[in-house]
Amino acid sequence: MGDQSLKQYTWEEVKKHRSSESLWIVVDGKVYDVTDFLDEHPGGEEVMMEHSGRDATEAFDDVGHSPDAKEIQKKYLIGEVVGSRREQEPRPPAQLARTGVRKNRPAGQRKGALLLRSSYYDCFSSRGSGMATPAGKTFTWDEVAQHNSVSAGVWVVIDGLVYDVTQFVDEHPGGDEVLLDNAGKDATSPFRDVGHSDDAIRLRDGFCIGRIASDDPPSEETPRSSTSSQLKAAVGVAAGFAVPALVLVAAVAAGYFIYRRFKH
């Protein structure tokens, strides 16, 4: 028996709400009207649209959720689904371009958040006037630097916020090398240089786990993006070869000058 205090809807009624003007989903038999949450969804509105008017329980369960996230979820609860469930139509092609979620993977394996990633609300305490306020855990640069591989965890820092993108490495549209090259480092410049859509930024926010401690500014030894470090290394190597080469050239020239002088 369902909860008699909740309004009851049939599957046919739920399936009518599949647009941005009215978007319902079902999780564990409960009906949620998430229309007003589209713009707030860390994974982009496309993921929500894909599950609109459908049972999203499996996709929702694939993503871990904190108690705070589940409390926020409750405010969108409008009822429960009743009656025999008819076979759902084939899911329409997902328009997931630029969200970082691959189209060709089963829904149960996608790493993009369906509703709320727990880490997102651990990282941001509030959203007001389009600005998110950093909150939650803080990390030092030394802690971040230790997470520079898939086995140790892939963390990157963007604008002072720390993101654990370990589970996103295989999903990254630009390939895993880009993330691994910047793992454990400040990736602000590379992230800005590429340019990202609003959906991609919302997806990124879903991986936020905290921020860099304000009393731990990056030192000169703090790793930066691999591009700059590789450039410096290349310059250093070139300089190392250049100095001995110049000395050798000078010695040969001097010897030749002396030889010519004594010969004549």
Description:
The chain is of the alpha+beta class. The protein has 3 domains: 8-109, Cytochrome b5-like heme/steroid binding domain (Flavocytochrome B2, Chain A, domain 1), CATH 3.10.120; 118-212, Flavocytochrome B2, Chain A, domain 1 (Roll), CATH 3.10.120.10; 225-264. The chain is built from 10 helices and 13 strands. It has helices spanning 11-14, 45-50, 57-61, 67-74, 118-123, 141-145, 176-181, 188-194, 198-205, 226-263; strands at 8-10, 18-19, 22-27, 30-33, 77-82, 124-128, 131-134, 138-139, 148-149, 153-158, 161-164, 185-186, 208-212. The strands form 3 sheets. Strands 8, 9, 10, 11, 12 and 13 form a 6-stranded mixed beta sheet that branches. A hairpin with a 2-residue loop joins strand 3 and strand 4. It is elongated. The termini are far apart. It holds the Pfam family Cyt-b5. This is Cytochrome b5.
